Amino acid sequence: MEHILDNPAWNAFLSGNQHLSNGTDKVKYFMPEVSPFVAVYENTDHGLQLLDQAIPFDSPIGVITTVPLSIPDPWRLLQRVDGVQMVYEAIAERPSGNLSIRPLTNDHIPEMIELTQLTRPGPFSSRTIEFGHYEGIFSENKLVAMTGQRLHAFHYAEVSAVCTHPDHLGKGYARQLIASQLYRIQQENGIPFLHVRSDNMRAIQIYEAMDFTVRTEIYFYFIRRK
User: Fold this and answer.
1) What tens digit of pLDDT does each residue of 178-224 get?
2) Short-list 199, 183, 201, 200, CA closest to 191
3) Which domain does 169 fall in, by range?
4) Strand, coil or helix: 138
5) Which are the contacts of 62, defined by CB distance < 8 A and separation ≥ 6?
6) Which of 93, 117, 90 is nearest to 176 (CA)?
7) 61, 42, 68: which is closest to 225 by C-alpha?
């Protein structure tokens, strides 16, 4: 039986991210200004062939899958990112750090985009904040670290957009922001998970030290119409 997180975007469209969902009973998508990710009911060649008629825009889209895919016409592959999916099943403690973690609002969107463009934690656009629960750390009134949530697949909640300005690495900002998200998710009876590039060993080691465990390999296909 397929696990909810084997097709995390599809299950998020059906549940916690339904308010941002568009599409048909077979294909779902976010608007590009929210996220490039789309999903099909089944990650197969036939499922991907349904994308062409259902997606009404020509900007790049992303498909998340636990199985390698072949990309059918009329799509061309822009990039495949190999990653791992990690789940947190320990007990999160209430964050006790002395850092001032602040909720991020629409007023912070320009700074959030600037930080994500610099650090490239994953796609982030003008309405990505609508996934919810974004928090940040500021230094001299400038946003220097942040994280939030993205896919909400039934009782699973994805920790996302974990990033720290290069000038502020090594200060524990990411750990405290993640810890805040873990506690928030569990207080809402959710199970935290995240995705990280397979070659980002530093991040994987940090997540493992925080008691995340690898559940599966996962692939991100970014494609565009020819």
Assistant:
1) 999 999 999 999 999 999 999 999 899 999 999 999 999 999 999 99
2) 183
3) 86-214
4) strand
5) 35, 36, 37, 38, 123, 220, 221, 222, 223
6) 93
7) 61
Q: Which of 85, 79, 40, 17 is nearest to 224 (CA)?
A: 79
pLDDT of 48-77, one tens digit each? Answer: 889 999 999 999 999 999 999 999 889 999
Residue 122 region, left (φ>0) first, then alpha (ψ -120 to 50), else beta? Answer: left
CA distance 42 to 65: 10
CA distance 141 to 37: 32
In whole angstroms, give the CA distance from residue 198 to residue 188: 29
- 112 with 60, same domain: the answer is no
Alpha-carbon gap, residue 224 to 27, rounded angstroms: 16
- Nearest residue to 63 via CA among 50, 198, 88: 50
Torsional class of 154: left (φ above 0), alpha (ψ -120 to 50), beta (otherwise): left
Q: Which two tokens stand for residue 7?
A: 């097709």
Q: From CA 56, how far away is CA 106, in angstroms rounded?
A: 26
CATH of the domain at 123: 3.40.630.30
Closest CA to 109 of 92, 90, 134, 89: 134
Q: What is the pTM of this model?
A: 0.95
Partnered with residue 164 across adjacent β-strands are 145
The total domain count for the chain is 2
CA–CA gap between residue 173 and residue 38 (Å, rounded)? 31
